[in-house]
Every structure is written in structure tokens, then in C-alpha cells.
């Protein structure tokens, strides 16, 4: 018996030490590879210079990395801002601004406000993408709450000891030799390189079709109301106004950007019966910005949500895997090339002739004229591109029924 007890104790000790050693080895590997760049470990080409795009903890990762980055310019919004607004844009560089892209896919004004408050101390400029659907009002679900960032110690612990972190460390090693890895730059920008392989294999028509299906299903479920109980406000509008107040207190120049939605998406909004609310939303943004300016805020609303020759970029035909789109990945996401023009407009940089009339500064004196112009331009585009208009209508009447997205 003593011998048996002794053997059990030895086995237990060996098991404990083995487990401890394996855990320590995993933690050391995760620390040295630093797949999320949260430890600030030196990067080495061919080993960990390219970081994978995280599938989890992205809000917490960007909060930690953004805090250490000490940005003087901040980019906020959802996935459209994350892939469309490049922190290396010339407008930031020429103004000696250190820009960080804190945008997170699927985020709304609640997160945008929380992220700005967390990262705002040294921000001279903020570019905030605002998405119409985030402002449609539906009663909050039971148990819903404001976004809470995970404690940085907890995030770091997960980045050392979780299975996800280990897999991402191994993924970091693997993607160093990939041509188009799904990656995230150290300044928070998502170059969406992996979409290049999707385009090469399946073509743009497939990407547009898939996104159009998703948009049709989403739009069919959307509430047709902007305000809570007819009170002229909503949680999203309240968050926006709080954001403008925070920017004023921090003396931050804020550019609110209505995204340059592709014509297909604008037609889908219209066919879903949401266009009047879209117009009213623009009025609300304009009024909120004007009110904030009257109290000392430096804020501008830039409207790119209007049918335009750039946003009506033709979609390559089904099966076409060679034609390269210049401005869009699909109707939901524009490329950084179009995002560069948006930033050029917002910062007063020179624009090429094709974009000279792209986007407008919304103010109370001009908002109604702009709304009327956008209504006319959408109707004209609907007549000009009947195949695309028909596809949008089919998606609206049967969100899961259409089989292809036709090219303009």
C-alpha cells in the first residue's frame, strides 16, 4: 500500500508539473507571437509581422492596442469604416496626425460612444461612420445593456491561456507566407486582402449576390420607426448627441460620415419602404450637429448616401472573374479607394474631376435641397439601370427568392 500511495503521489506530481509546463509553454508561445499585438512584442518578418484578423475579443483588443497607440485621430464606425477608412490616408499624414481605426464590425452608436470616451484624451480629429439602420428604433430586449469593455488584465489572460489565442498564434505563423491573408494592421485597419481570393475564385457578382440576400433579409425585419414612442428621440440619437458633447468637451474636430452606399443598396432601402425614414434621419443628423455647433462643438455631417456615378459602379457579369471593381467589394462595403475620396472631401483635399461633386456638407440651410436632389437622382438611376432596379424589387418582394444580381 505505501508503494501504491507513493506511486499515486508521483503520478499526480508528474501530471501537475507536465500540465503546468505545457500551460507555461503555450503562454510563452502566445506572448512571443503576440497574435493580437496587445503585448507590444517586437515583430519579426516571416514570424509575426502580419497579424491575423481576430474572430473574438475584437472590441477589447482594439481598446488595448488603441490606448497604447496614443492616436491623435480616431476612426469609428462599423465594418464599413474598418475596411474603408485608412489611417495612412494623406490627410492624416499632412496634418501630422497619428490615426487609429477603432471601428468594429456590427457595432452601433452605443459602442462608438463608449470607444470614443475610452480613447479620446489626445484626439484632435475623429471620423465617425454613421449607419442608417443603427438609428431605426425597436424596443430594447430584456437584459440588454451598454457595451462594457472587458478588463485589460482579463483580456491579456485570455490572450495567453485560451485555446483561441493558441490557434491564432499558430495562424499567425501560417499567414506570414500567404499572399492575401485575413489580417488586421497594427493601426486597426482591415485591408480585407482575403476578399481578393474570393473575387479571383468566384467573381464580384457572387459577393454582391450574397450581400444583397443578407441585406434583403435584414431590411425585411427592420422596424419602420426612428423614435421611441413618438418622442423625437431614441437611444441611438441620444448616444449621437452624447458623442457630440464629448467631442466638444475634448475639443475634437468631428466628421460624421453617411456612408457611400452602392446604388443596389440604396434601391433596396427604397423598395423596403425605408426611404422617407432615410431622409428624416439625415434631417436629424443635421439638426443634432447644428445644435452641437451652437454650443461650441466642431462637427460636420458629410452626406455620401446619394445615388452618384461613383456609387453606381457597374457590377461585373456572373462568371466574370477578371474585371476588377474600382470602388466596391460588394454593396455593403466600399474599398479604401472610395474611402480615400470620402476622406479627401471631409478634409478639404483636392479631388479628381470624377469626384468633384461627390458628397456634401449637410447644414440646415441646404439639407432639404440635398434630400430633394437625392430623391431625383435615385429615380433617374432606377430608370438608367432597369435590370438592377428589377433585382432590388425582386429581393424586396421575396428576400430569399432572387438568384442573381444583374449588372447595371
Topology:
Layout: H1 2-33, H2 58-69, E1 73-76, H3 79-84, H4 90-94, E2 99-101, H5 109-119, E3 125-130, H6 152-161, H7 163-175, H8 194-202, H9 204-221, H10 235-249, E4 253-258, H11 263-271, H12 275-294, E5 298-303, E6 328-330, E7 333-334, H13 336-347, E8 360-362, H14 367-384, H15 386-397
Parallel strand pairs: 1-2, 1-3, 3-4, 4-5
Antiparallel strand pairs: 5-8, 6-7
Count up the domains: 1
> What proportion of the residues is helical, as a percent range?
40-55%
Helix/strand class: alpha/beta
Q: What are the secondary-structure elements, in order, as H or E?
A: HHEHHEHEHHHHHEHHEEEHEHH
Q: Could you list the spans in which at least 5 consecutive residues all have pLDDT below 50?
A: 401-408
- Principal-axes geometry comes out as globular
Looking at how many chains there are and whether they match, the oligomeric state comes to single chain
Give the integer mean of the pLDDT values: 89
The total count of strands amounts to 8
How do the strands of the widest beta sheet line up side by side?
2-1-3-4-5-8
Instruction: Provide the gyration radius in Å.
Output: 24 Å
Strand content: 5-15%
Our measurement of the CA-to-CA distance between the termini, rounded to an integer number of angstroms, reads 84 Å
What is the number of helices? 15
Main beta sheet:
6 strands, mixed
Amino acid at each position: 500500500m505505501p508503494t501504491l500511495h507513493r506511486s499515486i503521489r508521483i503520478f499526480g506530481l508528474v501530471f501537475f508539473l507536465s500540465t503546468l509546463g505545457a500551460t507555461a509553454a503555450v503562454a510563452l508561445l502566445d506572448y512571443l507571437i503576440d497574435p493580437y499585438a496587445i503585448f507590444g512584442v517586437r515583430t519579426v518578418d516571416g514570424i509575426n509581422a502580419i497579424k491575423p484578423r481576430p474572430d473574438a475579443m475584437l472590441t477589447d483588443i482594439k481598446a488595448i492596442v488603441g490606448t497604447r497607440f496614443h492616436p491623435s485621430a480616431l476612426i469609428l464606425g462599423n465594418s464599413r469604416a474598418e475596411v474603408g477608412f485608412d489611417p495612412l490616408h494623406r490627410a492624416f499624414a499632412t496634418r501630422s496626425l497619428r490615426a487609429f481605426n477603432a471601428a468594429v464590425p456590427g457595432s452601433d452608436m452605443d459602442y462608438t460612444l463608449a470607444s470614443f470616451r475610452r480613447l479620446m484624451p489626445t484626439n484632435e480629429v475623429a471620423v465617425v461612420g454613421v449607419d442608417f439602420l443603427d438609428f431605426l428604433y425597436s424596443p430594447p430586449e430584456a437584459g440588454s445593456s451598454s457595451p462594457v469593455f472587458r478588463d485589460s488584465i482579463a483580456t491579456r489572460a485570455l490572450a495567453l491561456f485560451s485555446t483561441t489565442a493558441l490557434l491564432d498564434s499558430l495562424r499567425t505563423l501560417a499567414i506570414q507566407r500567404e499572399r492575401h491573408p485575413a489580417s488586421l494592421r497594427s493601426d486597426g485597419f482591415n485591408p480585407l486582402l482575403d476578399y481578393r481570393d474570393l473575387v479571383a475564385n468566384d467573381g464580384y457578382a457572387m459577393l454582391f449576390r450574397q450581400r444583397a440576400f443578407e441585406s434583403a433579409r435584414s431590411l425585411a425585419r427592420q422596424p419602420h420607426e426612428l423614435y421611441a414612442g413618438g418622442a423625437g428621440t431614441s437611444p441611438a440619437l441620444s448616444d449621437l448627441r452624447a458623442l457630440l458633447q464629448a467631442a466638444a468637451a475634448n475639443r475634437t474636430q468631428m466628421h460624421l460620415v453617411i456612408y457611400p452606399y452602392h446604388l443596389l443598396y440604396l434601391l433596396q432601402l427604397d423598395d423596403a419602404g425605408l426611404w422617407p425614414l432615410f431622409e428624416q434621419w439625415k434631417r436629424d443628423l443635421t439638426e443634432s450637429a447644428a445644435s452641437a455647433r451652437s454650443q461650441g462643438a466642431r462637427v460636420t455631417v458629410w452626406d455620401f448616401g446619394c445615388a452618384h456615378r461613383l456609387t453606381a459602379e457597374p457590377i461585373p457579369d456572373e462568371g466574370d472573374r477578371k474585371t476588377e471593381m474600382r470602388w466596391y467589394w460588394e454593396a455593403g462595403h466600399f474599398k479604401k479607394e472610395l474611402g480615400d475620396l470620402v476622406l479627401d472631401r471631409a478634409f478639404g483635399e483636392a479631388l479628381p474631376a470624377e469626384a468633384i461633386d461627390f458628397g456634401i456638407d449637410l447644414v440646415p440651410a441646404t439639407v432639404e435641397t440635398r434630400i430633394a436632389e437625392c430623391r431625383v437622382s435615385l429615380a433617374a438611376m432606377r430608370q438608367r439601370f432597369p435590370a438592377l432596379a428589377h433585382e432590388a424589387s425582386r429581393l424586396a418582394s421575396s428576400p430569399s427568392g432572387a438568384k442573381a444580381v444583374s449588372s447595371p
